[in-house]
Design a protein that fits this description.
By secondary structure, the protein is an all-alpha fold. Helices cover about 85% and strands about 0% of the residues. It is globular.
């Protein structure tokens, strides 16, 4: 029996159960953003709020998601993965109900903050669970397999959100999220088992917590993979946060057409997860990430060139974003696995710190996209291209020199 097989047996779970649970838990974040994206212009109209204010319903989600990881990680190391995951799902469901009945834009923003805390707790616990059970290479393959299933959420989310919005209005998106959380809580409560056998009673003490985060930041491998993960997510988040205003407001797509356009990017991510599973096993984390970064720079660069050439058509953004989606999977899965690999007994904290850095960058990107929106395609396309180039630079420098984590089993 392999080491990972022994860990799975000790935890009382199968590899298939882990993949499906991680996939379902990972859906909370993309559903929390993608399902309601087509409703953003409608929310602005309903509350008579400017674009920059409505943008905060997304930016606050990302900011809270990133910040709470610094707490959720130590919580998972102290109390175990299962209680943190289950509590996160419950908080997510309650917050979705608050958003559903929000009487003002301020209450909606507050509900989104709580929703992010719940999604964050579930996801951090899930990623730490994968590190408990698998080696770095196996972990990347497991995350890729889970991401293949998870991609159904961002693929179908905008389409379902558009349909719900057109029939029932913008509040229906949050009713759907509350229902999903209820079902997921029931499934997780019966199928999830604890995987963390060496709980750290001092994980939440400020001194040890800060020392753990400092140790992660001192690790060259962590810095390399966290930087790559933050950069590729920034490119993706620029599209997530700004695409509805550009594709609908500037280029004139209908809400339904926008949902289909958004799903094109997600389809690329799905293709990338399937490719990543095979590529990681054959090439390893570093070379897989490098190939993904090269594709991202090429695709995002093509998008920027088309915009600068005056091509004002949705396909000039949507088609390159398909390949950005592919590349994001090839970069993100190895980045997650590589960043936590050196921290077998503090995987929750390491995963949390990486997530915090990713979301901190994404929060700034979301604020920038909202503030820079000028009725043209340029802020969106040039921002995506800039981060695509940054991802490649990080891959050929930091990841190539410091990304060998093969000794961490």
């Amino acid at each position: 029996m392999t080491a990972s097989g022994a860990r799975l047996a000790a935890a009382g779970m199968t590899a298939g159960t882990v993949i499906w649970l991680v996939a379902a838990l990972s859906m909370l974040q993309p559903l929390g953003t993608d399902l309601y994206l087509p409703t953003l212009p409608g929310i602005a109209a309903a509350f008579d709020a400017p674009v920059a204010t409505v943008q905060w319903t997304l930016s606050i989600f990302v900011a809270a998601f990133g910040t709470w990881q610094l707490v959720a990680g130590p919580l998972a190391d102290r109390f175990g993965r299962r209680p943190v995951i289950v509590a996160g799902i419950v908080v997510y469901g309650v917050a979705s109900a608050i958003c559903l009945v929000a009487p003002t834009i301020e209450v909606l923003i507050a509900g989104r903050l709580l929703q992010a805390i719940g999604a964050c707790s579930a996801l951090v616990g899930a990623r730490a669970m994968v590190r408990d059970l698998y080696s770095p290479t196996e972990g990347a393959q497991t995350l890729a397999a889970a991401a293949t299933i998870m991609s159904v959420a961002p693929l179908a989310g905008p389409i379902l959100g558009a349909l719900l919005y057109e029939v029932f209005g913008w509040r229906s998106a949050f009713a759907a999220l509350a229902a999903f959380a209820l079902v997921l809580a029931a499934v997780t409560g019966t199928r999830l088992r604890e995987t963390h056998g060496r709980r750290n009673p001092h994980a939440l003490a400020p001194g040890p917590m800060l020392r753990t985060y400092a140790a992660a930041l001192r690790s060259p491998a962590f810095r390399a993979y966290a930087a790559a993960g933050a950069s590729t997510y920034a490119a993706l988040f620029a599209f997530i946060s700004g695409s509805s205003f550009v594709l609908i407001g500037v280029l004139g797509l209908s809400v339904s057409a926008y949902a289909l356009s958004f799903s094109t990017m997600v389809a690329g991510f799905l293709v990338g997860t399937l490719w990543c599973r095979r590529l990681v096993g054959r090439c390893g984390l570093q070379r897989t990430l490098l190939r993904g970064a090269a594709l991202q720079a090429l695709a995002s660069g093509a998008m920027a060139l088309l915009a600068l050439a005056g091509v004002q058509h949705a396909l000039a953004i949507v088609l390159p974003m398909f390949f950005v989606g592919v590349s994001h999977a090839l970069v993100q899965m190895p980045a997650h696995s590589g960043a936590v690999a050196p921290f077998a007994h503090a995987a929750g904290a390491a995963a949390a710190l990486m997530g915090f850095l990713m979301m901190a960058v994404a929060t700034l990107v979301g604020a920038w996209i909202g503030a820079s929106h000028d009725g043209t395609v340029y802020p969106l396309t040039l921002t995506i291209a800039g981060f695509g180039l940054a991802t490649l630079l990080i891959a050929v420098t930091l990841v190539r020199s410091d990304g060998d984590v093969s000794r961490h089993g």
